[in-house]
Amino acid sequence: MSGAVLTLKVNRVIDEAIDIRSYELVDPEGRLLPMFTAGAHVDIELPNGLVRQYSISSDPRDVDRYVVGVLREPESRGGSTCMHDRVRPGDHLTIHGPRNNFPLAADARHHILLAGGIGVTPMMAMVRDLGARGASFEMHYCTRSPERTAFRTDIAQSDFADRVIFHHDNGNPADGLDIAGLLREVRPDTHVYYCGPAGFMQACEAALAHWPRHTVHFEYFSVDESVEHGESAAFKVKIASTGAVLDVPEDRTIVEVLRANGLEVETMCEEGICGTCATVLLDGEPDHRDFVLDDEEKARGEFIMVCCSRARSPMLTLDL
User: Fold this and answer.
1) Spatial contact of 111 and 102, defined as CB atoms under 8 Å apart
2) What domains sit in the chain, N to C, each tagged with a CATH number?
């Protein structure tokens, strides 16, 4: 596990919208927390033993607290339901991080933020930061209805409220934001950020296919089950520091094999969405199966997420 390890107190729990709660986390002794940048997330150890990643929605300038938003997902594997059912004000939670796989681009003259549902959480920190800096931006916030729109009050009371456009589709995406229309024209010096559920992510990806890849940024908060990775063949990994060659069978991940051979690699999600296990790849052709690296980063082949990705070549050499 990477980043700072903190024990924080749940100071407040707020019902932000239907099935969405925010959790304000503070140091029990009132100390300042590690600084973070907009788009960052923390890994939270839950009472049921799971570890889940939650984006920080609060202002990066406000380091006496972290605020995370959690959507209750009945079909989840127990993370969100545990937060909603068991975490209360006064509880103490172990936190890892913060870490940022979804930063704002420093060279953008204008920022377009596309938030789908709970995908608004990292973008709340972004708009607070951009607003404080006087940067040029617009945020399109897509939800089913106003009652399911988290942080409405925060936005309404902010100095940037006029730059946030709400889109409510009442359950029919055709009645919501025309993502393709919004992004049809490539705007000079503009970067686009998107985060949301799988269907929303797919629509954004398709609409941005003609944009320069370095101007497009995204973050998944869950695995996109629609992605087909194909068959998993056996391959080998070579450990650069020792020259040891290890077999990775079809039914085991790289990190499982590494651990079985005494090599510990930090992990969190083990689904390819948090980036904790990123490992330098020295040689070989990877089969990237993560949702962290963008297309250009995958093409460069400098890193591999060993929790989920595999190999297209017979062997991968890892900088371990």
Assistant:
1) no
2) 5-99 (2.40.30.10), 110-218 (3.40.50.80), 235-318 (3.10.20.30)
Angle (CA) 80 201 196, round 5°: 35
Mind spelling out the 3-state secondary structure of 157-203?
CCCCHHHEEEEECCCCHHHCCCHHHHCCCCCCCEEEEEECCHHHHHH
Q: Is 211 in a helix, a strand, or coil?
A: coil
Task: Give every CB contact of residue 224 below 8 A, 6+ residues apart in sequence.
Answer: 198, 201, 202, 291
Which residue from 313, 269, 265 is spatially nearest to 291, judged by alpha carbons? 269
What is the secondary structure of 32-49 as a DSSP string?
Answer: PPPP--TT-EEEEE-TTS
Residue 96 CB-density burial (10 A; 0-12 exposed, 13-18 middle, 19+ buried): buried
Residues 223 and 27: their CA atoms lie apart, in Å, by: 31
Tokens found for residue 65: 């607290």
DSSP state of 6: E
Whole-angstrom Cα distance, residue 251 to residue 236? 13
pLDDT tens-digit map of 43-96: 999 999 888 899 999 999 999 999 999 999 877 667 889 999 999 999 999 999
Residue 82 is which amino acid? C
Per the CB < 8 A criterion, the answer to whether 54 and 80 are in contact is no
Q: With the CA atoms of 73, 143, 149 and 80 taken in that order, what torsion angle do they form, in degrees rounded to the nearest 10?
A: 10
This prediction's pTM = 0.82
List C-alpha distances in Å: 138 to 87, 166, 204: 34, 11, 16
CA proximity to 220, closest of 276, 304, 126, 292: 292
Residue 41 phi, psi dihedral angles, 5° rounding: -135, 165
